[in-house]
């Protein structure tokens, strides 16, 4: 399945209140890394943006006046992403905006176009739990250059390119993590094996002679039989006799103390 890193810039954060997409950036990946194929367009949102939003991505209202509307670029966008795995950071946000734009013009939603949505933020959280995992933090952690982003602000194509670099590292680290986890699980798993399948290791004559020599030393030291000379029944009987003897001594001692 083709993989594409995707990002959007918007007029705001509230798609349900009419905010629109102003830029789409897509970067295609292959088994060998980032390809030369991408999709990029600015869009006329047909509404004004507030100053605080412009401060983030440095795209002004004036810059978008002569840009195409989403409906003018929709088919080209659909052709590029159809049937692909889309890697999106905080995917719910971009997916929600793109689906809203597609619905406005009677086009299928991303998933209905055969797209698989992968949230790279969720992958980052699994690889780096309890850490900041926004795109800036990940780039800094992975030593990916963000100087252009710092100079020019957020941009959909630039952020998609940065995300592609981050994702390739995350995917490698997650694969390594999954392999390590699988190895641990394999070692920890107790396989069911019948007694007949267990190997039988028999002692040699030399081993038996040495074992008997050690037992004889134990017998002499203990002035009696070694533990290996007594079967379980005999051992239990011996312990019971010893306990009975101790109980009798305790009873005699108690009786003497009561007479004092």
In short:
A divalent metal cation binds at residues 7, 9, 159. The chain has 260 residues and is an alpha/beta fold.
Describe the model:
By secondary structure, the protein is an alpha/beta fold. The protein folds into 2 domains: 3-174, Ribonuclease H-like superfamily/Ribonuclease H (Nucleotidyltransferase, domain 5, 2-Layer Sandwich), CATH 3.30.420; 207-259, no CATH class. The chain has helices spanning 51-57, 61-64, 70-81, 91-104, 120-127, 135-141, 147-152, 156-188, 205-222, 232-259; strands at 3-10, 21-30, 33-42, 85-88, 116-119. Strands 3-2-1-4-5 form a 5-stranded mixed beta sheet, sandwiched between helices. A hairpin with a 2-residue loop joins strand 2 (21-30) and strand 3 (33-42). Helix 5 packs across helix 8. The model has no long low-confidence stretch (mean pLDDT 84).
Mean pLDDT value: 84
- Beta-strand fraction estimate: 5-15%
Give the domain tally. 2
Q: Helical content, roughly?
A: 40-55%
Q: Which regions are unreliable across 5 or more consecutive residues at pLDDT < 50? A: none
- Determine the structural class based on helices, strands and strand pairing: alpha/beta
CATH topology of the largest domain: Nucleotidyltransferase, domain 5
Order of helices and strands: EEEHHHEHEHHHHHH
